Amino acid sequence: MVLVALISGATTIAVLTRTRDELTAAAVSAMQSRIEALRHVYAVRLDVATTNLAGLVRSDSFENALTARNLEALRTLLGSYAATIRGQFAFVLGPDGKPFASSPSSLTDEADEDFSAAIRAQQAHPIPGSDPREFAAVIGGQAYRLALVPLPNHANIWVGAAFHLDDNAALRLKDVVGLELTFMARDATGRGQVSTSLPRELKSSLYGLNVAELTSGDPATIELGGEKYLTAAIPLESVRGRIDVIAQQPLRETLTRFAHLRLEMLSIAGAALAAAALLIVLLSRRALRPIDELVRAAQRIEQGHYGEPVTVRGGREFEHLAAVFDGMQKRIAERESRIVHQAKHDQLTGLPNRFAARMRLASLLQSGEPVGVVLLDLRDFKHLNASFGHELGDQVLRELARRLLGAMRAGDFAARLGADQFLLLLRGSTIEQAESTALQIVRGSRQGFLLGAIEVNLNVFAGLAAAPEHGTDADELLQRVDIALQETKASGARVCRYERGHDERYRRRLRLLSDLHAAIVGDQLSLVFQPKVLMADRRVRSLEALVRWTHPQLGAISPSEFVPLAEQTGAIGELTRWVLRSAIEQLASWRVAGLESEVAVNLSASDLANPELPDEILGMLARADVLPHQLQLEITESAIMRELDKSIRAMRRLRDAGVRFAIDDFGTGHSSLAQLKALPVDEIKIDRSFVRDLVQGTRDDAIVRSAVELAHSLGLKVVAEGIETPAAWTALLHLGCDYAQGYFISRPLPPEQVSDWIRELNARLAGAESGTAQVRVLTEFRSTRR
Ligand code: C2E
Ligand code: CA
Ligand code: CA
Known about the structure:
Elements: H1 2-58, H2 60-67, H3 71-85, E1 89-93, E2 99-103, H4 109-124, E3 134-139, E4 142-150, E5 158-164, H5 167-177, E6 180-186, E7 192-196, H6 203-207, H7 211-215, E8 220-224, E9 227-236, E10 238-240, E11 242-250, H8 252-302, H9 316-344, H10 354-366, E12 371-379, H11 381-388, H12 390-407, E13 413-418, E14 421-427, H13 431-447, E15 449-451, E16 454-456, E17 459-467, H14 474-491, E18 495-497, H15 500-521, E19 525-534, E20 539-551, E21 555-557, H16 559-569, H17 572-592, E22 598-602, H18 605-609, H19 613-624, E23 631-636, H20 637-642, H21 644-657, E24 660-666, H22 673-676, E25 683-686, H23 688-691, H24 699-713, E26 717-720, H25 726-735, E27 739-740, H26 751-766, H27 771-785
Parallel strand pairs: 3-10, 17-18, 20-22, 22-23, 23-24, 24-25, 25-26, 26-27
Antiparallel strand pairs: 1-2, 1-5, 3-4, 4-5, 6-7, 6-11, 8-9, 9-11, 12-14, 12-17, 13-14, 15-16, 19-20, 19-27, 20-21
């Protein structure tokens, strides 16, 4: 717009200026040619006048009248002559230079004087270069033109005619040349007169004109009576006084034409501007619409709506841009869905993750349908990873994921929640249906599968819950199925349904877990000791240290409850250290009291995996001045197997120092007796499940017998734990079991009772040679101690 305005403005100004100049120039040149015409007209007039004068003086009537000095006749002749030439008057000059006849005589005396003076001046000094017969002069303050012709037959007699340059003369000339004419006369005394063709009322303003300035240079524009005139002044050569002819051309017409032109030009410029404005609006609309569409598309993309294709009409560039936008939108949509997929899926198995599972469960619950929820847990998966490497671990997880998907029906949903946990959401399933699916999976995985050359048996556990009976909130259900899984682990079952009471136990477990550390450092733990009797000489040689926890609010807590919890959370190291230190200190104080004994301490799997443990134990022994062979460590086979290499290394180190090892709960693990050979142990403790109901000639009897035989053949001692009955005692005696431990002999004792108890039992049993006698002594002894 600004550009168009500038251009059209500049053009208009240029054209107008130029046009005005041209018009003015044209007016000036027209005026100059009129002035030229004026001169010409004047010359012709005077010529006519002088020619007529010559004719007059040659006429006989004039000659006769002159010769006869008939003034009357002369005057008549001069009068008619003056009328012919339209002169003011005609006259005859005598030799004295004074007119002696004139017609009509209109000059005043004073004017007469001027008139004679003018003629004398002309005769004495005619204006050089001009016709001496013609001249101008101010006479009596009035401008005149004069013509003067000598009479051929009369010396010093002249005939002349005078033309008064008055208003009429100006008007007549104006008619001929088309210019407003003004004669300005002024004589030496300052007297003067103005005659003009202009309206009378303008006369007074004509006096103010600066004539001198107008004479020089080009015509100037002057305003008179509200009108503009192109004005030029031409001095008339005058023999007396000064006469100027002022020629004026009204500029009205020129100016009107210019005004029309200017109006036209301005209208054209205005129209151009308006058209430009309109064009700009239209063009910018056209140009902006595609941009608007693109902006809208970008806003859609910003808000995450990628569905609508970006199309823009208008111009190839915009179509190209729209295509680029469209491509970008597709890429963003792809990437976003990939990121969303990644955020909702497990990278390893490709299954949805916990986040996605939670959302899915929430939406299933919202639909009100029943849902069966199965939480699967891989026991010992960490050890599988540690033993066979992560690659195999990953393969196992992928294979398990594949199997889970295989077991699914349409509408079911499988997710991986954590490293070794999977969740199934069974749409429309009752808890019974969920249980059968879970059992099928658990059994299938326990049967094992081949990965390359390796056969893997997976120890899978499952917790079960179902909506709506166990909750209608996703988080609640997920927590409850987790509680069910904990219950599965705690109870030793493979699959466990959630029950209302589980929450109680779960909360109790949580409470115990959080209080355990305080218990260890805060004197809530204590040790009790259960004697082991060497069957051969019936003397108590050793005591098993068993930990007790008296919780300030919950009372006595069984180690079977809190030891597994400690193992799960890693508090077990601290617990074991406490037990070891207390047991070793107890040994030291018994020795001071005169009791030489051995103590067995139970270790957990992770204890043996801790490479610092051997040195810690040896350090404690040394500090308490207790001999290493007074300490025995009990550990289960499965605990050893879990990290076999590390365990064996730790065991060797301690054993070299004199500490002895027993395999606890022998018979419950999976390892074969043959594997025992490789283990650096001194003793096996046959699990109490084989001992409790032991009667000679039963299946348990056969198992214990072969265990005893095998142990002995390997040079190991055999302990039977959990002897509760005389029958078991007798059977073990016959089987050649080395040590006996159980309620039949003694319950675990507080440390302060141990000394007396051992002394008394040893004394009583010393004389009991036969099995029957031993049984009687033990039974009696128990009843007296109760
Ligand atoms: P365990 O090592 O097999 O310990 C023997 C358990 O059998 C003890 O239970 C003991 O009181 C019980 N017992 C002894 N004689 C008989 C009997 O004739 N009949 C029956 N039915 N039971 C008998 P307790 O003290 O409740 O300990 C349970 C388990 O807790 C232990 O089993 C052991 O695995 C663990 N535990 C106990 N103290 C510790 C400890 O200081 N450290 C570690 N790591 N584990 C411990
Ligand atoms: Ca034990
Ligand atoms: Ca045991």
